[in-house]
């Protein structure tokens, strides 16, 4: 709805209907602006999807092996019953091409080449 509301001229009331369950982390859009257009993977499993620690590590390995820059949204409660802790090897391997955030202004994320989500 928010993206549609941006297309309606002269009515700012519609822009106030958007909501976020999580606080947006600053710096995501600026980081994206420093990257080549349409070349960044955006990964966000939404506000309710959860995974096991093993699934988190498996997914992290996939992102690391992709050798593509990525913005990965990792909510504090993404891992069921545990903290979302990524291996040091992953952090070291991806530090120059990764942005990890707890949440971001999704409607402003326009400079992506791929979008991975929960689709549900």
TrEMBL record:
Q: Which GO terms describe its molecular function?
A: quercetin 3-O-glucosyltransferase activity; quercetin 7-O-glucosyltransferase activity
- What is the official name of this protein in its record? 7-deoxyloganetin glucosyltransferase
Q: State the superkingdom.
A: Eukaryota
Q: List the lineage, top down.
A: Eukaryota, Viridiplantae, Streptophyta, Embryophyta, Tracheophyta
Tell me the protein family, please: Belongs to the UDP-glycosyltransferase family.
């Amino acid at each position: 709805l928010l993206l549609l509301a941006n297309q309606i001229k002269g009515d700012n009331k519609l822009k106030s209907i958007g909501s976020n369950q999580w606080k947006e982390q600053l710096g995501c859009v600026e980081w994206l602006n420093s990257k080549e257009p349409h070349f960044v993977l955006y990964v966000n499993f939404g506000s309710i999807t959860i995974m096991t620690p093993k699934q988190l590590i498996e997914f992290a390995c996939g992102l690391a092996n992709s050798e593509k820059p990525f913005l990965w949204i990792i909510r504090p409660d993404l891992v069921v019953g545990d903290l979302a802790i990524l291996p040091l090897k992953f952090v070291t391997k991806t530090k120059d091409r990764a942005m990890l955030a707890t949440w971001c202004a999704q409607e402003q994320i326009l400079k992506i080449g791929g979008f991975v989500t929960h689709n549900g």
